Amino acid sequence: MLGKTPMKLLLAAAALSLLATAPQVRALELKASRTSPFDLALTGKLAGVAPGETRYVSWSEIRALPTTRLMLDGEFVKGSQELTVVFLSDLWAALSVAPGADALFATCGDGYAGIYTSAFISHYRPFLVLEINGKGPGDWPPPGLTFNPAPYVITVSKALAPDASKFLDIEHKKPWGVQKIEIASFGESFRGIYSGKWADPGPAAVAGRDIWLNSCASCHPGPSGIFGGTKSERPLPVIAAYAAYDSPFFMKYVRDPKSLVASAKMEAHPRYTDEQMAQLMAFITIGAAPAP
Fold first, then answer.
1. 22 inside domain
2. Which domain holds residue 243?
3. How many domains, in total, are found in the chain?
4. Are residues 154 and 13 in the same domain?
5. Is residue 195 part of a domain?
6. Per-residue pLDDT in tens (0 to 9) along the chain, 292 residues
């Protein structure tokens, strides 16, 4: 058990109920092997799929789902663009999801990751980009981009969810190069940071945990194999050791990495307030030993 049920999990349960009652769409045909570089890998809590196994669905199968055309300005590339998209809620409805699943984890080819609870999916309406100005991933990158975001992009638009701009680190919910999606139980996947020394960490650390999940986990795995991106190759315990050893350096690095390490690849987070930095450090340094 996770002890006291966090409000996030209660909201997720309510959102899961909404996903479960969504209109039925044609089920996707999952294949045992990849047939194209544009196939989407699927794993996790899928009916008939054993734990650890991966299935694949083709771009054309996903394109055959109910799609929406959105005319957006500057949401993905500069200027006006038409996107053909499938909402994650419709993708969810087209999968044979096993009982207990209430979250979707997206992983990119470079190790970047995105975490989407059912509550987030219902409220912010994230979607999978299939075409940009009528062209699919085989014709990407689209004009205006110097990188290729294929095979898939997940993003959120303020045109559909105006309050998305108020969500701290909403950009971490917009990964490109998405290759794999895992259907998961949020409670099972993150049990480790809701129990033990993190079971009742106090208000500041609770807020810091949310920052970790919605931002840091995109590049950093959690302790003991807890889901997170692998792009940084530095898991939570390593980060915690450095934060405990030199908190001023840690704060400055998070806000402006290149000012301290010219070769740093980490994205700058200058908008983090002193309070938010203190909350993040309160969470990650629980029980941490300072780095030598």
1. yes
2. 200-284
3. 2
4. yes
5. no
6. 333 444 444 444 445 444 544 455 678 989 999 999 999 999 999 999 999 999 999 999 999 999 999 999 988 888 899 999 999 999 999 999 999 999 999 999 999 999 999 999 999 999 999 999 999 999 999 988 999 999 999 999 999 999 998 999 999 999 999 999 999 999 999 999 999 999 988 999 999 999 999 999 999 998 888 999 999 888 999 999 989 999 999 999 999 999 998 888 889 999 999 999 999 999 999 977 665 5
